[in-house]
Amino acid sequence: MEKAIWSEWEIYFQRQYEIAFVDFQNCVQSADYIQYAAAMLEQYPGRIIDIAGWSLGAMVAVELAILYPKRVNSLILISAAPKFISDNEYLGMPPSLLRKILRDLSRNPSKTIKGFYREMYSSTELIQGYLDKFEDQAQREFVGLPLPSLMAGLKYLEQFDVRHILSEVSAKVCIINGLDDTICPPQGIQLMKKILPTLNEDDIHLIPGCGHHPLLTKKEACLKWASN
Questions:
Q1: By residue range, what is the domain housing residue 183?
Q2: What's the structural domain count of the chain?
Q3: Which residues form the AB hydrolase-1 domain (predicted)?
Q4: CATH code at 62?
């Protein structure tokens, strides 16, 4: 997703923090996502940083914290998961569905992206008009990620699995997730709760009636939890 989704966070935190964004526009391979994030970190040599990430960005943030434990102070993970794809031991997106999305994206990017936008919201949020609000913002403010970047992002999600190394995270962690999130189901948070050594009960925020995009639908609460 694009920098514009963080606009209110940027305004809220800019007096307290120096803020930088990772631009994934030019990613063409799944490995590029971590490389671009690491390159951002290297622009601030020796600095200890706090990272906020949403969806795929939250997963990249976790990997970055594992790779650079002495550089990452805290993680704010919004709509995250320790693994994206289902297997015999984990409930995530069915592999067949991800393959279908990849095919559909290559054939009809616009229709596929609109379908994903709809999946980001719970039935209650759809009735409340949040999809319309988001599509209006996207039309006004989004540049549009190139197709190779979108495809690379899905490939990244396809292979993403940090269950076996999640215990290596030493940064403080705050988790924000919708209980009605069908893209990153909240069951994954329960697993993270068991494995993450630095995650406290008070720092887990599971929101009833909320889908995959609490940045928009629960923005005041997200800012409050992040600032704490």
A1: 3-227
A2: 1
A3: 32-218
A4: 3.40.50.1820
